[in-house]
Design a protein that fits this description.
about 30% strand; Alpha-Beta Plaits; Rossmann fold; alpha/beta
Length: about 375
Amino acid sequence: MHCRTCLAVLAVLAVAGCADQPSPASPDSPDFAMSGNAPIYLVTFTDDVTDVRGTALELSRAKGFALRFVREHAARGFSAVIPDAIASQIRNDPRVLIVERDGPVSLVRPIIEAGRPGSAPQVVSYGTTRVGGSGDGTGKTAWIIDTGIDLDHPDLNTSRNCHAFFTGRSPDDQNGHGTHVAGIVAAKNNTIGTLGVAANAFVCSVRVLGPSGSGTFEGVTNGVNYVAANGAPGDAANMSLGASGSQSTLEQAIQDAAAGGISFTLAAGNNGENANNFTPARVNGPNIYTISAIGSNNCLASFSNFGNPPVAFAAPGVGIISTYKGGGTKSLSGTSMAAPHVAGILLLGPVQSDGTACNDPDGNPDPIAHR
């Protein structure tokens, strides 16, 4: 078995619940950040810790808690159910960089419009045309860190054995959001559905959000760690999800994974506010791109978050037709739709600019992404 396939299987088994690896609470339940009477904490080690798993086991035995997940590739460390008093002690360990309580994350809520059946003739979204048209993404890989992907969708290339889930019981999409994102990146060049920016590329489902679109920092960070372990330079990973404020563990994980040559595209958010107030939108660094949304008039959408930094580019995000669960297509609006346009561009080469967005509230117009 190929090493990447092994990792994928191991990741799925761990999340499904092995004997020595307790399953996480459902992110759709109100007690997502609690187990029993103690909260879930995410712990990240300093760079000089080389044996992550051994150090995590040592700490857990010394302090009397059970490990949930160990991350060895991004925000290297672990998550565990830890009483607050013990968490305070762990913060004082010189090997520990970050100790944070788990919290809620959700998809960047889109505006849902009309849908079409899967058998309908192919329609090219204006978004794909606006960013320079579709290119051939055959052989390229996009990681969709989201609600999953409809793995049977006839307009998506899900044939690579790369799928994993960190919530629920499969990487299949029960919401629709992740499938829509995947199609913007890479819907096939055929006669049905729609056409992605990097048509025919592999799309890998990294399911971190439940049917309602909710999840946890623990699950999302584990998803980023999975991409860091299994991705390769030149791949693109899209994250159309977020929460208010900051979360150092998740942000560190994205920076670590991006340092390995994987490009991350992040939705700026749909709050009409400064993107610096939201995570992971606020993350900056090499190979990390926060994306705002424009309409067909090239103006920033009224719902789009803004701010330079962290916003790197604007891309189409109003009335975007793409694949949806159940085999058809749907038109959605949001920065969730803008970010994957840039993911598709990055699979084909460097992102360029073609004009600037009008009506940018911060007075520094975002460059419009283009192939």
